[in-house]
Design brief:
This protein is an alpha/beta fold and 441 residues long. The chain folds into 3 domains: 6-122, 3-Layer(aba) Sandwich (Rossmann fold), CATH 3.40.50; 145-372, pyruvate-formate lyase- activating enzyme (Alpha-Beta Horseshoe), CATH 3.80.30.20; 378-436, OB fold (Dihydrolipoamide Acetyltransferase, E2P) (Beta Barrel). It is 33% helix and 23% strand. The strands form 4 sheets. A 6-stranded parallel beta sheet has the order 2-1-3-4-5-6, with helices on both faces. Strands 7-10-11-12-13-14 form a 6-stranded parallel beta sheet. Strands 15-16-17-19-18 form a 5-stranded mixed beta barrel. β1, α1 and β2 (34-35) form a beta-alpha-beta unit. α7 packs parallel to α9 (213-220) and α13 packs parallel to α14. The longest helix has 24 residues, at 349-372. The N and C termini lie far apart (66 Å). The model has no long low-confidence stretch (mean pLDDT 91).
Length: 441
């Protein structure tokens, strides 16, 4: 019998895509395939692509072209495959298969069909699959952290977004399934679970008839893992019950990633955001009152069609008033299949870019003040890497989410994957610097 081919997976895009890649790795390994991180040594390169905005598509295409020029046989997976399956097969002869965004669980069969000489298109017309705790998975994150998907897809129709087309409608896992996987990850030594979905505050609506996030958080509170972090909390879904669950469940961090996108009601209505312009000061103040220690991250889109100078000034004032701990800004990207690309009042690229840069410049001193407030405190830090030259440990405090926020640089003896107390001695705009705290004698 001929030996099975060796495969490498190139992961692009969001953490939801990362989980899909981890399941493909797990499924292939369980089927006896050799998996390598070195694409040069692999017989096949599986590229798990992103197609959310133009820049993501460009990165995906650039990766595919580089692999094609290197003579690799390519399996194109993920959102770009879901979006442009026919074009990819027509324009990239080296593509031996395309695998849709909810077809990653078929990866072993796809490779077997390719090995038998077939050129494969495995793309469901409507994405409906979601993996559970029984699906093999090989984690690619640092050993102390894991992403835990609670739901997939989206039922909203934001005018700038094509996620529902790429990922399908919302489908939630059961509380029991999520808790079981959390227990499995905790048994592997994971110290931090990051709960993700497109709209985490809507968790359970499709399965149970009403959101069940509060119930899920309390159930996860029984899992022996120190930190549970939640991403993508739509503010109107942060009900008193959800806020109470965060406050009363010790291992759920008071860290809220609020995808606000804008502050002005007219722009929010044009975006067709689910709360139709009802993001206001009162909502943010209610969150701060219920969770005084909350760390708030948000993202905004600037240069949306029809955004006037007055709309933009409204956003700048909003940011100054609320002083978010972490903030990301994106210049509006018109997507051909999204309604916002056809709205009147499209702004020039230069205006969109200038507003993004102005907003980020406004945020920098705010972020620096928030970080400087940590100086003198002793905080828990999850150690994730070590500088091979200096031996300095690098990790994150509870204020920092993986990949999107800052880091903590730590002097003193540490262990990878452990949470250690660190006294913060210095700070800059993005990062903190400290020393491992010693026990009082």
């Amino acid at each position: 019998m001929a030996p099975k081919p060796t495969l490498a997976i190139a992961h692009l895009g969001c953490e939801k895509n990362r989980i899909d890649s981890e399941h493909m790795l797990g499924l292939l390994a369980a089927a006896g395939y050799a998996v390598t991180a070195d694409e040069a040594q692999a017989d096949y390169a599986i590229v798990n692509t992103c197609s959310f905005i133009a820049e993501a598509r460009q990165e995906s295409v650039r990766t595919l072209v580089e692999l094609a020029e290197a003579g690799k046989k390519i399996v194109i997976a993920g959102c770009l495959a879901q979006h442009f399956q026919e074009q990819l097969l027509a324009e990239i002869p080296e593509a031996v298969a395309v695998v849709g965004s909810s077809d990653y669980h078929q990866i072993v069969k796809v490779v077997e069909r390719v090995e038998a000489g077939e050129r494969v298109k495995q793309v469901s017309a409507e994405p409906t699959y979601i993996a559970d705790e029984t699906t093999p998975r090989y984690r690619t994150t640092p050993e102390g952290v894991a992403y835990l998907r609670v739901a997939e897809g989206c039922d909203y129709g934001c005018s700038f977004c094509i996620i529902p087309q790429l990922r399908g409608r919302q489908r939630s896992r059961s509380i029991e399934s999520i808790v079981t996987e959390a227990q499995q990850l905790a048994a592997q030594g994971v110290q931090e679970l990051v709960l993700i979905s497109q709209i985490t505050t809507n968790y359970g609506l499709d399965r149970y008839g009403k959101p069940q996030l509060a119930e899920l958080l309390r159930a996860l509170g029984q899992v022996d893992v120190p930190w549970i972090r939640m991403h993508y909390a739509y503010p109107t879904g942060l009900t008193p019950e959800v806020l109470a669950a965060i406050r009363e469940t010790p291992n759920v961090l008071p860290y809220l990633d609020l995808p606000l996108q804008h502050s002005h009601p007219e722009i929010l209505r044009a975006m067709n955001r689910p709360w139709q312009g009802r993001v206001n000061d009162a909502i943010i103040e209610q969150i701060k009152a219920a969770l005084p220690e909350a760390v708030l991250r948000t993202t905004f889109i600037v240069g949306f069609p029809g955004e006037t100078e007055a709309h933009f000034e409204h956003l700048l004032d909003f940011v100054v008033r609320h002083e978010f701990d972490h903030l990301g800004a994106f210049a509006f990207s018109p997507e051909a299949e999204a309604p916002a690309s056809r709205l009147p009042g499209q702004l020039p690229d230069a205006v969109r870019a200038a507003r993004r840069d102005q907003l980020m410049a406004l945020q920098q001193p705010i972020a620096q003040r928030r970080n400087h407030a940590e100086i003198g405190k002793t905080v828990d830090v999850l150690i994730e890497q070590e500088n091979p030259t200096t031996g300095e440990a690098i990790g994150r405090s509870a204020r920092f989410a993986p990949d999107v926020d800052g880091l903590v640089y730590v002097q003193g003896a540490t262990t990878l994957g452990a949470i250690v107390p660190v006294t913060i001695q210095d700070a800059d705009i993005y990062d903190l610097y400290g020393q491992v705290a010693t026990a009082a004698t």
